[in-house]
Design brief:
This protein is about 40% helix and about 20% strand. The protein is built from twelve helices and ten strands. The two termini are about 40 Å apart.
Amino acid sequence: MTDPIIIIDNLTHVYRSGAAGRPALSDVSLAIERGSCAAIVGVTGSGKSTLVQHLNGLLRPTSGTVTVDGVELGAAAGLRELRRRVGMLFQSPEAQLFAPTVLADVAFGPRRLGLGAQELADRAIAALAAVGLPAHEYAGRSPFELSGGQMRRVALAGVLALLPTILALDEPTVGLDADGRAEFYGYVRRAQLERGVTVVLVSHDMAEVAALADRLFVLHGGRLVAQGPPHEVFLQGERLREWGLLEPPLVELLALLRRRGLALPQHVSTVAEALAALSGAERGRADV
């Protein structure tokens, strides 16, 4: 890894100290590359949310170190800087909305940075445009009059207006339908590609992370039990089931097709890759 933006070294977190304390995370070490989309996956109680809450100092390590964009979690000054660089959305992010208008809500975070009026307005307007909610149409509306998907995009805009280098998302699309999830993650992907934002996605949905992530980190019982590109992790089907996870349906289908004799390389894990591989094989046969 040439440019890690997040380095976690031997992280252990215990919610209660003493004999009654049980580690929520045990000796977790990982690195996430700048500009990538990394997914932290695992069943409920595996430690996913505990891990991601260390990224902006909501939780502190019991032992080990967390370094984010060159800032080590520790002193209060470092904590303030960390929270400027890491934007976070949790489950049901519409619960974070509170202002009377969409523009006021999106501008709340940047206002706390002490920005001038023009820069404040520019950031809020640009952030709304980045999530498909143009200011001329939505700025003066109440966020509570919008659809559930639009409210979540307002919450995302409020984070993007802070110009974070890292966007940490803790299952932010729970409860949305397939179209709402696809739309939300489309804007997340746009921020990653156009702004160079590093995305850390917490999820238990393997199909979701297969479509989004460059690298998966699998937690089980508070320990990091697997990591790697999605297609490599998905090859561990039996172990995934032991950890309470299932391969995405498409990955299962591709495995079945391979067993039936279809020549699909092991790295193929998406429809586009499968079609490209089959097209290449067909061209190869035609050239013979």
